[in-house]
Amino acid sequence: MKCRVLILDEPTSSLDDDETARLFTLMRKLKGEGVGIIFVTHFLEQVYAVADRITVLRNGEYVGEYKTKDLPRVSLVAKMLGKDLDDLAEIKSAHPEHRFGDAKTPVVSARKLGRKGTIKPFDLDVGKGEVVGLSGLLGSGRSEMVRVIYGADRPDCGRLTVKGREVRIGSPLDAMKLGMGYLPEDRQRDGIIPDLSVRENIVIALQAKRGMCHLMSRREMDEAADRYIGLLQIKTADRETPVRSLSGGNQQKVILARWLLTHPDFLILDEPTRGIDIGTKTAIQKLILSLADGGMAVVFISAEVEEMLRTCSRLVVLRDGRKVGELSGGELNQETVMKTIAGGGEENE
Description:
This protein is an alpha/beta fold. It contains twelve helices and 14 strands. About 35% of the residues lie in helices and about 25% in strands.
């Protein structure tokens, strides 16, 4: 078309490294011919590889425009997260030492597990009683990593060991039978079943795990629903209320109840506190820590760094679909997390 302006919206999201390199060669050629290019991407490395200027948006609002050469990566991350580097202070983990779990006894262990186009091969161990956080910007590969572990997306390389036994997970049902639970990022799309009642939403995972040959009785369903409505303080008129009529925070509690009812050994929580009130958020954070105290292995994903530091004993940092670091102990502070997310070496700090 001999265009003068070319808009590329996430053009590399499904490309491998070689294909991305060829695209960048073409973009540089077009730039040399006078074509203006708008390049939309989550990938920091790619921004610094080809962009002359960077426009930052956060939560639908314009933050600013900067020359690439004048904007260190860690400063870019700060602007994307809405943090002021001058005000960063180390936040001490609020939970005591016994909540750090037993990293030497992994409940789940991944080795070179990955899926082409979504998450590069990674190693990950989550021990009994541990809360391991996955940190990174939107699109960094956090959700993709747990989806591969859980079998929501099938891996195409690597090995997964659960409680010391190598397994192949072909579907989420396989994962459930191995003692896993997964609260997904999008509760409306992947979590609640809006037309079903609170009771039905709570018991559905346990019933699926048992199979159709071992149906739950109505009395068993009622008792289970009432127990978790009380335990998690779910605000609902009664157990038969359609779950769609509950607030977002209470819907999230219903999904949590669903997985707790299956008594998992390993629980994945992807953005469990997003979009809910501060009271419910605090209650869920306390629940996560109490589950770890009881020996459950937990993977916790949140866009809020402070929340991760309060809750997690280790942080795995992802960038551009790749695991780039693992932080623990004295490294667990905002500045170290942000510098690890930013990457790019000391010259960009």
